[in-house]
Amino acid sequence: MPAIRIARWKNDARAAVSLYYDDGTDSAFEMVVPSLLRRRIPGTFFLCCGWFEGDKAPKLARWSLCREHPEIVLGNHTWSHCGVQGPEDLADQLARNAEGLRAVTGLPPRALVAFGIPGGVPWKVTPVEQDACFAAAGVVLRHVFPPENAGGPPGLHKDVRMHTAADAVAALDRAEASGDREALLFHGVGGDWIAFPAAEHERLLAEIDRRRAEGRLWPDAEIALHKYETERDAARLSPRPAPEGALAAAELSFGTDPAVYDEPLTLVAAVPDGRDSVVLEVAGAAPRRVPAVDGRAVFDLAPAASLSFLLR
Asked: Is the dihedral of CA 143, 193, 137, 127 positive or negative?
């Protein structure tokens, strides 16, 4: 039977990257958003909804474009960016901001949202208290790097040390070399605070786009990468007896709640020499033809409790 495996990253890419934009700066909306949409590269924008009250409300409402453009994903960054004095304060900051974000995004209450700890402010909760508050609020701590190491304390932002596209591309190289993932954090781009040069940001996006086209890199929103990793690590792939004429048969058990963890998983099957495609048959769905390139067929399966499938 041909070998079948769960890909480490979507589309069997070597590595993954997520782009973070903190604080909902004007330059992020005016300069970054059009660039991401033009290249169809997702980014996560971590907003503090409390910053947009009163006459600033229209600047929050404009982020509702995320409803029509899946490349623009919003994350929770606390209500006020003033830090927290304890678990009750954290719970309140998360809940108030989640309500504001839901009004903009239209996401249901059970939808998971990525969370970024605000930097440079007090963070007076223990890791255990923090985890409990995150679980209750349905937020997921974004990929950890300083200052977000197990709850803090928040300190110098990583983006302070990025000045050029080459600085950021070095992180992509590290991810590919290790087969892991990276996160790149920005605030202002071409303006506002902790500004990263707009031209260098464009060069970075061009490089990400090139590596994605070559199948080397999976760029996506932080919450998509979190879901994929969680599903991948919980999933189990079990071979089954293949009927006559089939190449292989298997059952995929996800181990996660498909109502919450809904990111499709990528599977990779070895294909015998001379085959340029296979037919994928999934129980309860219409058969579909999957191209075979370089001796492998790559296909996605949407989460369910379990799925039986075969390849012909």
From this structure: positive
Residue with tokens 């409300």: 57
Per the structure, the complete domain to which residue 33 belongs is given by 14-227
Is residue 217 domain-shared with residue 250, that is, in the same domain?
no
Q: Is residue 8 part of a domain?
A: no
Structural element, H or E, at residue 202? helix 198-213
**Segment 40-72, tens digit of pLDDT:** 999 999 999 999 999 999 999 999 999 999 999
Pair (63, 194) in one structural domain = yes
Give me 194's structure tokens.
């902790």
- pLDDT exceeds 80 at position 2: no
47 part of a folded domain: yes
Measured from the Cβ of residue 296, the count of other Cβ atoms closer than 10 Å reads 18
The residue to which tokens 């937020």 are assigned: 139
Q: Put residue 24 in one of left, alpha, beta given phi > 0 → left and psi -120 to 50 → alpha.
A: left
**CA 106 to CA 96: how far, in whole Å?**
15
Q: Is residue 197 part of a domain?
A: yes
